[in-house]
Amino acid sequence: MSKPHWRRAHAKDLDAIGAIAARIHPDLPERAEVLAEKMRLYPDGCRVLAAGNEIAGYGLAHPWMQQQIPPLDCFLERLPEDVDCLYVHDVAVLPDHRGGVARAYVAEIEQLARSSGITRLALVSVYGTRLLWERLGFQPVAADAALRDKLASYGGSATYMLRELAE
């Protein structure tokens, strides 16, 4: 069996992405149409983890603005013009396929950011994954009141994190 690898997500992958999202994020549901919009707006940032003929995970990222968190299960409508980060909306991998694959996705997204002239990655850590993201170079950011309000919908352990991309 070939080693799982990240490839660009396609519309036909949406059912698998939705099924993985429902399993990994039962408390943070998002409609398939919302996920499809991210793929349409920024296809380069949307990848799936292909394991043989199966999809074992996905990663969704798009250009955005620091300290601004897109609300869950809401349409973006369009990407902002004054972007200053690549926002990692979600990385979800089925338990049997974990172990280094998040690092590989982040490496791909980092290259994408650099090629777009973006010097920071941003994300919201959920479900106590902060240590994983810290190992991948992300640092927690002290949240002001507005950011705390936005983080609330992501759950009690939600932490906004940034990663500077070295020159």
Biggest sheet layout: 7 strands, mixed
Report the count of strand segments.
7
> Would you state the CATH class?
Alpha Beta
Q: What helical percentage do the residues reach?
A: 25-40%
Instruction: Kindly report the CATH topology.
Output: Aminopeptidase
Strands ordered across the widest β-sheet:
1-2-3-4-5-7-6
What is the N-to-C succession of helices and strands?
EHHEEEHEHEHE
Label the CATH architecture.
Answer: 3-Layer(aba) Sandwich
Please provide a written account of the structure.
The chain has 167 residues and is α+β, with helices and mostly antiparallel strands. It has a single domain, classed as Aminopeptidase (3-Layer(aba) Sandwich). The longest helix has 15 residues.
Chart the SSEs and their pairings.
Blueprint: E1 5-8, H1 14-24, H2 32-41, E2 47-51, E3 54-64, E4 85-93, H3 101-115, E5 120-125, H4 130-135, E6 139-140, H5 145-152, E7 159-164
Parallel strand pairs: 4-5
Antiparallel strand pairs: 1-2, 2-3, 3-4, 5-7, 6-7
Write a concise keyword list for the protein shown above.
globular, about 170 residues, seven-stranded mixed β-sheet, about 30% helix, alpha+beta, Aminopeptidase, single chain
Quick overview:
The protein is α+β, with helices and mostly antiparallel strands and 167 residues long. Helix content is 30%, strand content 26%. The protein has a 7-stranded mixed beta sheet with strand order 1-2-3-4-5-7-6, sandwiched between helices.
